[in-house]
Amino acid sequence: MISQVAVTAFCGLLIDCEPPDLECPPSQNIRGDKNCMANVTWTEPTVTDNSGESFPSVCDYINGDTFSDVSTMITCNATDSYGNTGNCTFTITIYDDQDPVIQCPVDTQVCAQNGFTTAYVTWALINATDNCDKVNITSNWASGDEFEIGENLVTYTATDCSDNSASCNFTIEVFDCEVPVLNCSQNVEFNVDDNCTSDVIWTEVTATDNYDSNVTVFCSRTEGVFPVNNYAVTCNATDMAGNTGNCSFNFYIFDVTSPDVICPDNITVDTDVGVNTATVTWTSAIATDNCCEDDIIVSYNATNGTNFKIGVTEISFTAVDCYGNQNECVFIIDVKDTEPPMTDECLANITKSTDVGESFSSDIVWTAPEFTDNSKITPNVSPSHDSTDTALEYPIGTTIITYNATDDAGNLGQCEFLIIVTDNEPPLFTECPLDIAQGTDYGLPSAVVTWSDVNATDNSGIPPNILSNYDSGDNFPIGSTFVEFNATDAAGNVNTSCQFFVSVTDDEMPMADDCPTDQSVTTNKDMSFATGVSWTLPIFEDNVDNTTDIMISESQASDIFTMFSIGATKITINATDQSMNTGTCMFNIYVTDNEAPIIEFCPPDIKISTVSQTNTAAAAWQSPTATDNSGVPPNITTSIQEEDLLVIGDHTVLVNATDGSGNVNTTCFFNLTIIDNVSPIVNCINDTIIMLGNDSSTAIVNWTAPEVFDNSGEPVTLTSDPRQSGDEFGIGTFVIMYTAVDVYGNADQSCIFTVTVKDLESPYFENCTDSFTVGTDPGLATAVVSWDEPVPIDKNGINRTVQNYYPNDIYNVSSYTVVYVAYDIYNNNAVCEFVITVKGTWHDLHEKVDDRGKYMDNM
């Protein structure tokens, strides 16, 4: 392998590789002219070379050039015969000590903006000139800035790139040109008081100013007391800048007060006698005014002292003052008519009897009287009865007939007479009892007899007085009794036509106080009947007949050998008196069955399996049987019915046998056990694949446990084997099986899935060599090439490594791409690749060399 050291040694012996040495002139600082330029010359650089030869230098600027940049670096080069180049540099600096020229505008005066104490002021763009043309302009104000009232000095400064500067100034004076703004009162109106003056006030006049915060307002008038008139007020305000603002308003004082008027009191008079008018006079009304004193015009709408007709007349008094304000007062004259209407045709009294069967008299007529009145207006006549109405009914007694005559003033004139009606008819019975037939009262030989009320009416409308020889509720003996009623009216008329008979008979049956009571016995043993039942015959009594006169009969005689069936047997004893009234004594013989049924067959305990996917099974058994002493099959009931759905577990069935008498046998019971033989159902989960990240060889794997259903509805124990969710898994595929066990031990292991942990991380190489170039070995067209082999690394181990070239082999002149591929145990791979270039180092010197000793081709 040919090293770089060998090549350098070869250069030193055969070839000049050293560049010339240049010494440049010193750097220069030159003052620029008015255009910031200067022509600059310098001493040419000195060139020396190890060959001893002399060479000219070449600079990138020409000696004597004109320079305008502030600082310029000049580079000079010299190349020897072998192409070696040396260089040196120096600097030409042009400096400027001339100030810029700047021109400011003239001083400016402006007014502040309305409503503000400032003004925005602009001016033309300010420029500066300089011999170097690079000027920076600064100012304490900019065109368009906002300036306060007063003088403001604006300064501009121009600075060139050499820090030479020049300044100029101008003044901006801002004036307050705005007058104060007055907030004037509106026009106001006032009405005078009782003294014909008014206390005048108005809204305070204020002023605001854009600059002066304390502006005083002066007005031509001040608030106070003023008489009736129209007045103008002028106000002004001057700020500190001498600007004056003003405003004006008016106030008006009016007399709107009407005169005070006082009318005389209302007047009430009666008409003059016999006529419909009255002559009336009054005291004059009075008028006064707050402003016009005696200058008041007054008037009436009627003449004092003239005649006024019956009724109310309204008299108005009007007063108008000198300002046209008007007022009036009103009083009334009320002429009243107090004379009543009159008549001289009033009638004498009239007497008549009642109409037949009526409490009144009708068909009475008479001639109505006529009335006159002083008002000359026919009065309104209102009679209490119509004199021509023959249908009017006049009641028994005295009726007052009244004629009322009323004039328009309400005065009343009257005429009265009497109509007298008499009653000559007796009363009339409307309700009279019929003959009454009634049995004796209980236990007695007589009866208290009642009847409905006896009623009578009278044509007079007044209930008559009714009397009788017996009263309702009297005690009547057995037999027939005559009863009579009399009715008398208020006029003494009598009616005796109400008569009837009361007949009392014996309807009461004989009674026994010692009727036997009900008897309760039980059946003879193992029989459906009872014997040995007896009773004592009762004694009957009657309200009329003696005991010996009563006839007795029985439905069944007392006999200890008589058989009575289960249930009730009614015994009837009858007693009949001489009037054929029959009394009855009844009692019951109750035969009770107290023997319980006998259960002949009771089912044994039974086990039943649940129906698939449910936690229930239908109850079923062989029916139990029973017998009873009554001969009637007993009713058999169970606490659980056949075909009932029962949940898993033990259930006790109670069997009752009940006979018709309610006797119950409860000695039979058995157990039903519902067994769960159905395994849980597991909804298995999908297989899981986990991709490992970098630098990991294991993974924590979590999954959601599968859903489990069990027909029992009870909790299910769910376990996984051999791993659980949340365990750490290495690389590979793992089979997980879930076992579900219900509380009854039924198990399911059908849920099986896999967890696969995959290694996706590739190996990597350490010390993968960079591409490199080597020369052929001395005197050879090949080279033995060596390198440090890269090391493959993987967290899970390297399975195999393959490569296409190997170190320390012989390589021809060419380029070789060396590839290493490393595979881990999961076949993930990594590649290390680099290029080896073998060059013919001596072959590059084939060319002929001159007499100065360059190597020839055969070396």
Give a description of the structure.
The protein has 859 residues and is an all-beta fold. It is built from 1 helix and 78 strands. The strands form 29 sheets. The protein has a 4-stranded mixed β-sheet, with no helix packed on it. A hairpin with a 5-residue loop joins strand 53 and strand 54. The protein is flat and about 200 Å long. The protein starts with a helix and ends in a 20-residue tail after the last strand. The N terminus and C terminus are likely disordered.
Topology:
Blueprint lengths: L3 H11 L6 E3 L4 E4 L6 E2 L6 E3 L9 E2 L6 E2 L3 E9 L5 E11 L5 E2 L5 E4 L6 E3 L7 E2 L5 E5 L6 E3 L1 E11 L4 E11 L5 E3 L4 E4 L5 E4 L5 E3 L8 E3 L4 E4 L1 E10 L5 E11 L5 E3 L4 E4 L6 E3 L6 E3 L8 E4 L6 E3 L1 E10 L5 E11 L13 E4 L6 E2 L18 E4 L10 E2 L1 E10 L5 E11 L5 E4 L4 E4 L6 E4 L5 E3 L7 E4 L5 E4 L1 E10 L5 E12 L5 E2 L6 E4 L6 E2 L9 E2 L9 E4 L9 E2 L1 E10 L5 E11 L5 E4 L4 E4 L6 E3 L6 E3 L7 E4 L6 E3 L1 E10 L5 E12 L5 E3 L4 E4 L6 E3 L6 E3 L7 E5 L6 E3 L1 E10 L5 E12 L5 E3 L5 E4 L6 E4 L5 E3 L4 E6 L5 E4 L1 E11 L4 E11 L20
Parallel strand pairs: 2-8, 10-16, 18-24, 26-32, 33-38, 40-46, 48-54, 56-62, 64-70, 72-78
Antiparallel strand pairs: 1-4, 3-6, 5-7, 7-8, 9-12, 11-14, 13-15, 15-16, 17-20, 19-22, 21-23, 23-24, 25-28, 27-30, 29-31, 31-32, 34-36, 35-37, 37-38, 39-42, 41-44, 43-45, 45-46, 47-50, 49-52, 51-53, 53-54, 55-58, 57-60, 59-61, 61-62, 63-66, 65-68, 67-69, 69-70, 71-74, 73-76, 75-77, 77-78
